[in-house]
Amino acid sequence: MANSGTWLPAARGARFRLVRKIIHLDMDCFYAAVEMRERPELAGQPVAVGGGSRRGVVTTCNYEARAFGVRSAMPGFKAREICPQLVFLPVRFDLYRAASARVREILCDVTPLVEPLSLDEASLDVTALDRFAWDLAKEIRQRIFEKTGLTGSAGIAPNKMLAKIASDWRKPNGQFAITPDQVAAFMRDLPVRKLWGVGPKSAEKFATAGIQTCGDLQRFSLPEMIARHGKWGGELYHLCRGEDDRPVEPHRIRKSLSKECTYLENLESLDDCRAAMDDLIAELREELRGQAGDRRIRKIFVKMKFADFTRITRECLADEPARAIFHRLFETAWRSADGRPVRLLGTGVRFADSAGGGAPLDITQPLFEF
Ligand SMILES: [Mg+2]
User: How many Å apart are CA 47 and CA 11, to the nearest integer?
Assistant: First the structure.
């Protein structure tokens, strides 16, 4: 079977500098799944979880809702329009955080090399374990289901990027492996859009140049890639070959944490943007509580991207992710937007230096630093 996904450390793939065995675990429609577990009467019904406000967007929806065309980042009213029987629930982060913590415990029982990426995603380095990664992934998913009643999907690959891509391949409740000797064939046909850092705009540019797949991109030499795309080109050169040397970092010190959303439909009005901002701020604060509760914040920022793909960021000194300050930043950004439709909003914080907590915040500095 082509996808048996079982290889032992350093067995094959000599062309890699280091052959790792990485499992990427991604819980299936996590928020919606937790809600359905809490309310068994919802079984079989289309369920979406989303922003508390009427204008809020869908954060996650279950597969029943997807069958109607409901998607994350879709405006709530639109989701209700195409799926009138949709059960639209407000987000309850305390529940998701608790479920996430239980999943994390199970992962950490397997190896200390667990890098959480968000509440519902993590990478594990299982290279040193004398087990087939395929079997481990199966066991992990089984244990998670037994302990939490939730399903997750796994990707197994020689590096973090490929494992993440692979975790998407057999969703929901499945797993997919890319063994070292399958990497070349897998990358050849993979759309460039799947690579990290390739957004819709870059994908569009590549398509115009006749580049659809990673195989197309591989035709360019490293110097050509750097000449065309700068430093990013150098990274892309490796990524499009399925090469990614970044280790799994269990205690990665984040410099910042942010939440952003690219909306399926552009936000046209100030009120829509404000409501969307509130949802993002709430999510950011929850993520902070879950992942960085002890970190000192130095700055907060907002980010806007417009329909024409231009972008604005605004940031200021602040020691907490206060809603009022986010909104002030947003209002200044909005004024520069000149009524352009908004396709992406983001909110985030930058942390003070980890060592010694950084310089104390100087409150005599102006609030806004542009
Ligand atoms: Mg997920």
Answer: 45
Regarding predicted confidence, which is higher, 364 or 28?
28
- As residues whose CB is below 5 A from the ion ligand 1, the structure lists 26-27, 120
- Ligand 1: centre distance to CA 27 (Å): 4
162 located within any domain: no
Domain ranges, residue 349 = 256-369
Residues 208 and 293 in one domain: no
Residues 282 and 364 in one domain: yes
Position 314 in a domain: yes
- Judge if 209 and 293 occupy the same domain: no
Distance CA 190, CA 175 (A): 18
Tell me the pLDDT of the chain averaged across its residues: 88
Dihedral (CA of 162, 163, 164, 168) sign: positive
Same domain flag for 333 and 268: yes
Pair type for strands 368-369 and 311-317: antiparallel
Confidence tier at 18 by pLDDT (50, 70, 90):
low
Query: Nearest 5 degrees, angle CA 277-CA 283-CA 286?
Result: 140
| Model pLDDT for residues 130-159, shown as the tens digit of each residue | 899 999 999 999 999 999 999 999 999 999
Q: What are the φ/ψ torsions at residue 29 (nearest 5 degrees)?
A: 25, 65
CA of residue 63 to ligand 1 center, whole Å: 12
CATH number assigned to the domain comprising residue 345 = 3.30.1490.100
The residues annotated with a catalytic role in the active site are 121
Distance from Cα 316 to the centre of ligand 1, integer Å: 32
The Å distance, Cα 31 to ligand 1 centre, comes to 9
Boundary (domain end) residue, out of 221, 251, 281: 251
Distance of alpha carbon 109 from alpha carbon 341, whole angstroms: 47
How many domains does the structure of the chain reveal?
Answer: 3
**H or E element that contains 186:** helix 183-189
